[in-house]
Each structure stands twice: as structure tokens, then as C-alpha cells.
Amino acid sequence: MTSMEIDEGDGTLYPIAILIDELRHEDTNTRLHSVKRLPNIAQALGPERCREELLPFLAAELIDDDDEVLLALAEELGKLIDLVGGQEYLYTLLTPLETLAGVEETVVRDKALESIRKVAACFNPNQLSNHFVPMLKRLAGGDWFTARISACGLFTIVYPHLDESQRHELRVMFTELSHDDTPMVRRAAASNLGQFATLVGASSKTDLVPVFQALAKDDQDSVRLLAVENCVILSSLLTQEAIVVNVLPVIKSCAEDKSWRVRYMVAEKLAELCQAIGTTSTRDHVVSLFINLMQDTETEVRAAAAGHISAVLSTVAAEDIISKLLPHIGTMVSDSSPHVRAALASNIGSLAPVLGKAATIQHLLSLMLQLLKDDSPEVRLNIIQNLQHVNEVLGVELLSQSLLPAIVDLAKDKQWRVRLAIIEYLPNLAAQLGPQFFNEKLNPLCLSWLADPVFTIREASTVNLQKLAEVFGLEWVNRAVIPHLNHMCTQQSYTVRMTCLFAIAVLGQMVGHEILRTQLLPLVTKLAEDPVPNIRFNAAKTIQILASNFDKQTLNSEVFQCLGKLLQDSDADVRHFAEKACRIAGL
Fold this sequence. Notes:
This protein is an all-alpha fold. It is built from 37 helices and no strands. It has helices at residues 14-23, 28-35, 38-45, 47-61, 67-77, 94-100, 106-120, 125-140, 145-152, 155-158, 164-178, 183-199, 209-216, 221-237, 240-255, 260-277, 279-294, 299-307, 309-313, 318-333, 338-345, 352-355, 357-372, 377-385, 388-394, 396-402, 404-410, 416-433, 435-441, 443-448, 455-472, 474-488, 494-507, 513-527, 533-546, 552-567, 572-585. Helix 12 packs parallel to helix 14 and helix 24 (377-385) runs parallel beside helix 28 (416-433). It is flat and about 85 Å long.
């Protein structure tokens, strides 16, 4: 195009001329490079030539290009907002973006819509009415279905800024798109219906209810499952009477849908629906639907229902849960799928506050004990991680009588992740049990983890000691932990001796100068003479960690002597860490 030519004699614009030539280049990578420099080209050309030459050229020449080039073009056009001559000329960017919004490749259309939103955000109401709405009408009436798909995502941008007659026109247009012959267009309409409904005035919401109901009965399951999400949004906008008439029948229909994906979506969204439709409607209409989902033939649906039991039943009376739902929950405890049982295990404990103490003891504990003994480690893990609700309802004494034996068994579980979950839960349980009960029942178990064959467990057990020390105090550390550390120092396994150092490094920062000097430092000094080099240099690292916790006298005597021996060690790594410890300790 001659209109895009630049005088090569102008040295300042010559590089821009090269970029413009590259836009016409046969090589895709070359065109892509030039497209990514569009803001530079537009700035060099100036606003007028950008509007009158560059943008028409892009719309005419590049629109049939490679998808990668089109994607970059859609993105870069959104960066030209400040380069077309001000707000009054922003509409010129819509022409190439409108074309890109109708291409076949989804990612290109999505990026074009993103840039259109950026441009529209800078429009005043008159520009939206005069330029944006006509573009939306052209896309909605486009011959190619991709343009109509893009149109579905643009209604929310302009709707709030229009007068009532134009709003009505847009609602009619959206309704037509929701009845489009192409399933993908109807899916796009269903996907955007909820957001569009939130912008529609209270008096006009009923215009969208027929759209919602039609989409919920669509012959494509990909469209119907989106109707479930719209149930949640519409329920928050309608009155209780309107919900019962217009939304609940759709929920019931979707819960019995022939496609398991639609039923799965109901199970996923049912808790939100219950919150939106209220307690009375939940009791009268939703409980029976939820029971059907709990008994569904598809594993994924049952797992989704099990995973939301506590959220759904939080709106249901305790007596209804006991009489209508607990028998089915009991059946799910023995479900053939471990995924269903794992989802149930992650939520069943949350029913305790809903049921109350007596009902929890009578009905819930036996189910939880059964899950605690499940063959699947994931099931056992999920139960452990959600015991706090049961603990809050039952209290320490009842919890220890009913669940503690099973917890102790799980602390020895062959799956290390289950043991790890017990370790992480233990400080919270210890605070409830008190030091006497803890020392009798759980302390030996807690100390045994320090010798676990899995490093992650040994590491977590040292952190666990610190948390327990914060709960029980230094007297407990001195009486219950330090004697065991003395024993660990003499163990044949070097990993146990190493863990002893890790525990000293953690506890030494909180026990005070006296216990550190008289009880823990002698252990470090002893391990500094260990035959294994890894133990010796970890002794130096432990001193380095605790350097600020020693008093000056201890540093200049016992610590100095210990590090002095390590500085003469035959192993280079030991000498390195000893030197580093000396520097940090100021010796």
C-alpha cells in the first residue's frame, strides 16, 4: 500500500519503515516480531496516520494471518489507546478488533474481547451508544457463529450505560442468542447469563427467566450444566416466591439429568443454592434431591455430594439430618470408591456442631471410627485433619475415650503422610488434654517420631517439640524431653543422633541460658566428637544457630573449646562449618 510508505531519506523513521515492511513479510516469525512492535510504529507515525493508514492496513492485510500473529495483534491493539489521538478517536480501534472477535481460533477471540473491554472502559456513554452498540449488533447478527459467541461476552460492558429502550433491545438480542441454532453460541449465552442478570434492573429480571429455563432444557449437556451455575446467581436476585416457581424446578430437573456431568454440577453447587433459597425451601425441596445425589450411580457425583455434606446440611435441622440423612451417610462410609469415602471423611466431622453433643456421640462417632480404620490412607488422613470440630463439641474427656485409641493407632500408620497429619494435629490436641494426660498417653509416641525412618517425619517431630514446649512450658521440656535427647545421643543410628542435634537447635532457642548451658550444650559437645563427619559438622551448625542464645562466659569457655577441636578436624566440611560458627559467634 503506497499510503503506508515512508520516506527512507528520513533517518529517524527508517527503522519504522523496516517494521512496516516486515508486516508484509512472508515469514511468520518476522511478521510476529513486527506486530509486537505496533505501539512503536503507531507512535512514530503519529495519531492521524495511525488512524487513517495503519489501522485500515492491519484490518485489511493481516486478518487472514497465522493464529499466533493474530493473537499478538489482538493484544497489541489494546495498547494503542493513547496513540490514536485521544478519546474521540478511540472508536477506530474497534474495526480491527471486531474482525478479530469473529475469527475461528478461540484464544484470538478471547484476547480481542479483552482489548475491546480496555477500549470500551475509556468510552463515554455517547461513544458506547454510537460505536460500541452497533458493533455488538453486527457481531450478534454475524453469519459466522464465532462472531455471535464473542457478542455474548460483550453485553455486560455496555448495558449499565444505556437508556431503557436500548437496554430492552439488548435483552431481546441476548434472548435470540440463547436460542441460536449453534450449540456453542447457546453455551456462550449460558456462560454469560448470570453476570448479565446481575446488571438487569429488578423489574426486568423476569425477561431473563425464560432464557434461563430454556437453556436449562437444552439438548446439549454442556449448556445445561451451566444452567446450574446460573441457578445460584438468579436465586440471589429473585424473591423466595419466584425462586420456588422458577428456579427449584430447574434444580430438580438438573439433579435427575441423564448426563452425570450435570448431576455432578448440581452436587458441587448445591450448598450455594441452599444458602440462596433459604432454610425452608431447602428442607422442603432440596433434602430429597441431595439424598438422590448421595446414592447416584456415578462415583464422581457421589464424591461431590460427600464433599459438600457439611455445607449443605448446615441449613438443615438436626432432627432431619438424623432421621433422613444419617442412614445414607452410613452407607457412604462403606462406599466401594475410596474417593467417595475420602470426600466424606473431609466433611463428616463438620456435622458435629450441627448435630450437637448427644447426637454426635450417638450417631456420628461410630461412623468416624469406621473411617479412621479405613484401608485407604487418604480417608484416614482426611479424618485426622478435620477432628477439631468434633473436639470442640465433645470436649477432651469424651474425645480421649472414643477417638484417642484410634488416633494412637494411626500415629503408627505405615503411610508416613498419615503419621505427619497426626504430628501436625498433636499440639492442638495437647492443649486440650493437659500435660498429665498427654504424658501418660501420647508423650512416648511423640518422642518415638524422632527416630522415624522418614526424614520428613523426624523433621516435623522436632518442630512439634517446639510447639509442645510452648503449650506445656520449660519444666515439661526439662523433665520429659531432655532425658530422651541424652538417650538419642548414644544410639547406633547416625540419623537418630542427627535428629537429636536438630531438636537441640530448635529447643535451645527457647529454654534459657541455664538449661542450654548445663543440659543441651554437653550433648552438642559430645556429638562434636562423633565418628561420622556429618554429625560433627551439624554440631558446628547447631552452635552457629544457638550462638546468640549463649552468654559471653559460655561462648568463651565451653563453646570456644568445642569449636577449637572442630577447627582442627580432618574433614574439610567440618572445618568449614566450624569457621562459620566462629565468625557468627564472634570468636
